[in-house]
Design a protein that fits this description.
Structural class: mainly alpha
Number of strands: 0
Strand content: under 5%
Distance between the termini: 64 Å
Number of domains: 1
Shape: rod-shaped
Helix content: over 70%
Largest sheet: none
Length: 44
């Protein structure tokens, strides 16, 4: 059981890192889209 819990912890850590990467990429993409909209408005 201890080994099972330890491996579960490692899996969760890897999963959290993966999700954090996806989240930051999504946030960056959303921020880029918002900036593009703002610049287009300023351009008009």
């Amino acid at each position: 059981k201890a080994i099972d819990d330890a491996s579960k912890g490692d899996d969760n850590k890897w999963f959290r890192v993966l999700v954090a990467d996806i989240d930051s990429n999504a946030v960056a993409a959303a921020a880029d889209a918002e900036l593009t909209k703002v610049f287009k408005k300023l351009g008009d």
